[in-house]
Amino acid sequence: MVKLKINNTSVEVPESYSVLDAARQAGFDVPTLCFMKDLNEVGACRVCMVEVEGQSKLQASCVTTVRDGMVVKTNTKRVRDRVRTNVELLLENHNRECTTCVRSGNCELLALADNLDIPDLGFQGAKRKRYYDDFSHSIVRDSSKCILCGKCVNVCKKEQGIGILGFQNRGFESNVGPAFQHKMNDTKCVFCGQCVNVCPVGALTEKTDIPRVWDALENPKLHVVVQTAPAVRAALGEEFGNPIGTRSTGKMVASLRRLGFDNVFDTNFAADLTIMEEGHELLDRIQNNGVLPMITSCSPGWIRYCEFNYHDFLPNLSTCKSPHQMFGALTKTYYAEKQNIDPRKMFVVSVMPCISKKTEAARPEMEQEGLRDVDAVITTRELARMIKQAGISFNTLPDEPFDKILGEYTGAGVIFGATGGVMEAAIRTVADVLTGEDLTNFEYHDVRGTDKIKEATVNLGGIDVKVAVVHGTKTAGELMDLIRKGEKEYHFIEVMGCPGGCVNGGGQPQVHQKIRDTVDLKVERAKALYEEDIILDVRKSHKNLEVQKLYDEFLGKPNSHKSHHLLHTHYTKRYN
């Protein structure tokens, strides 16, 4: 521990702390733009400057380590003038079309400028060349809004292990993007969207489907159906001022009805269905010497990562489509048949916490007889924008239930949105199937939590099944390498492309970095899902009565020929 003074306030902190850490502990809010704890501590933006006694130059507090007896001032005129100048320089070279920017109202640069009371800019100069890339289905990159903070570069490289973003050129011509200004669609990008989540401005955003959804809703000839992923209910409320981790299932359903959707369904129904298909696929592989370990396939970011980097593991992937694609396929077959609706006049919208789902929905194989499984994908953020555009008072809405037929779900389906949730849901069902019993002890805490790799051996009907749960593509790659070397051996592996799983997906609400540094979004949002699991009467996928009815009336049995035709898929070796 070391003792120092910050603005005449004595503070004692660990010797490993930065001045920024110490200042925050002492109650002083030093501004930052580029800082991300453990990922981007580079002092690039120069807005966290402080005055240190004995130092002639101002210091970047995020990269200056504390020392015993240090005297620091964070709010002298010299500091304020320097920080204001640095922000003015960033603003001068920034595309300031703020009223039309998707980050309007939630831009860290604009908020900082407002705090510093910058009425006008004293600089006029040339602008860097603009690079605009909207060629993918998922991400839009606009270099005219980039402030060169480097957050996207390091979250892509250090956390996700992909590294398709980097600094190009030097000096005034510097910009951030893929090498040689390739389009993101032409790289190994998996469209996880973690770069979008950490961007403090509007340089990286999701490619919006809002106009297409509005057009569909206003088309009287279309029957428009919406489904919502489990993680959406754990985060949507944040967009309307609710605390992180607030569960807003009922209000989410009510708002979707008021937007004009003909039916409001839950992707959790298809999550339960996925467990039926995937669980029986796992049993078949174990009992009939199939390819093991079997690896989950519901995360499209992970699937792309595997298709690019681990071709030898493609046979290990479950052939199941992701839940929302299964749902879309059933909506235009089973549901259309029961409701006597022409599937060609149906429009299926998925509300997802994930922007990679946009690219997944566009995959060539995600269609049946010329009809796309899913017609449009919007993120949690996009849904919030639509609710605000429609003037709906979200927080005053009553709680309403999902529609039936494709709206019933169990606790197992809900927890899909958290890392370890798919694994636990699968074990709940497989254990009952193998034992022939309705087991009462079915919470598997060994696969919960945010440890990067979780391992367990579960005895299922006398069979010891070795399982692993991993989240984040970098860690997934590390685990695949260990399996390749023969150092690890499993029967079943759950992989989520985003750290923490879908609750931390690239389409979830963008949270200011100061909050991200102090609140674990993954943990708080996951709590909401486990809370919903606990309060539901039915918590095992195979006990979903509507899923049972679906098999009785339409699919026959899990992994049947019809199931494979509608609900399963294949994968592609990708090269770059």
Secondary-structure map:
Layout: E1 2-6, E2 9-13, H1 19-25, E3 49-52, E4 59-60, E5 71-73, H2 77-92, H3 108-115, E6 132-133, E7 139-142, H4 151-159, E8 166-168, E9 175-177, H5 194-198, E10 204-206, H6 210-217, E11 223-228, H7 249-259, E12 263-266, H8 267-287, E13 294-295, H9 300-309, H10 323-339, E14 346-352, H11 356-361, E15 367-368, E16 371-372, E17 376-379, H12 380-389, H13 411-414, H14 421-435, E18 453-460, E19 463-471, H15 473-484, E20 492-496, H16 513-516, H17 521-535, H18 545-555, H19 561-567
Parallel strand pairs: 1-5, 11-12, 11-14, 13-20, 14-17, 19-20
Antiparallel strand pairs: 1-2, 3-4, 3-5, 6-7, 7-10, 8-9, 15-16, 18-19
Give a quick summary of the entry.
By secondary structure, this protein is an alpha/beta fold. It has 19 helices and 20 strands.
Determine the fraction of residues in helical runs and give it as a percent range.
Answer: 25-40%
Average pLDDT rating: 95
Count of discrete domains: 3
Main β-sheet, in a few words? Answer: 5 strands, mixed
Tell me the number of strands: 20
Shape: globular
Describe what this molecule looks like in 3D.
With 576 residues, the protein is an alpha/beta fold. The protein has three domains: 2-91, Ubiquitin-like (UB roll) (Roll); 128-207, Alpha-Beta Plaits (2-Layer Sandwich), CATH 3.30.70.20; 211-567, Rossmann fold (3-Layer(aba) Sandwich), CATH 3.40.50. Helices cover 34% and strands 14% of the residues. It contains 19 helices and 20 strands. It has helices at 19-25, 77-92, 108-115, 151-159, 194-198, 210-217, 249-259, 267-287, 300-309, 323-339, 356-361, 380-389, 411-414, 421-435, 473-484, 513-516, 521-535, 545-555, 561-567, and strands at residues 2-6, 9-13, 49-52, 59-60, 71-73, 132-133, 139-142, 166-168, 175-177, 204-206, 223-228, 263-266, 294-295, 346-352, 367-368, 371-372, 376-379, 453-460, 463-471, 492-496. A five-stranded mixed beta sheet has the order 2-1-5-3-4, with helices on both faces. Strand 8 (166-168) and strand 9 (175-177) form a beta hairpin. The model has no long low-confidence stretch (mean pLDDT 95).
